[in-house]
Amino acid sequence: MGREPCAPCATPSPRWPGTATTSSSIERAAPPKAPQYDFKRIRRDVTELETYDAAWNIWFTEQGMSPLRVGYERLAANPAATLLGICEALGVRAPDAGDVSPGVAKLSDDTSLDWMRRYLLDASV
User: Fold this and answer.
1) Average pLDDT over residues 91-117
2) How far does the chain reach from its first CA to its final CA, in angstroms?
3) Which of 2, 36, 77, 80 could be joined to 100 by an S-S link, Cβ 3.0–4.6 Å?
């Protein structure tokens, strides 16, 4: 029997430009360029993500579910404690905290913090 996909599942997931590994990102013809602040692009991406978030919130409400929310800042600050909380919420045994090591580096830096501040100022005008 075919089921209708939930609203969030029926839309494509967000993609961040430059995050996928492609032949062009592996074999560059030129050195990588420094990132450039682009208010319109950031606003478009924020709007898209807010739309996805709203669709998920509607779906969870319709299903009578309360999702476990894990923010990036909390996860980046203490991955082991965050994983412990997730395991507790799922009712599964958590790994030893000493065995928890993120496989990737934290993405935020001074540039992203500056862009966040600039975006908030630009958006308030």
Assistant:
1) 85
2) 51
3) 80
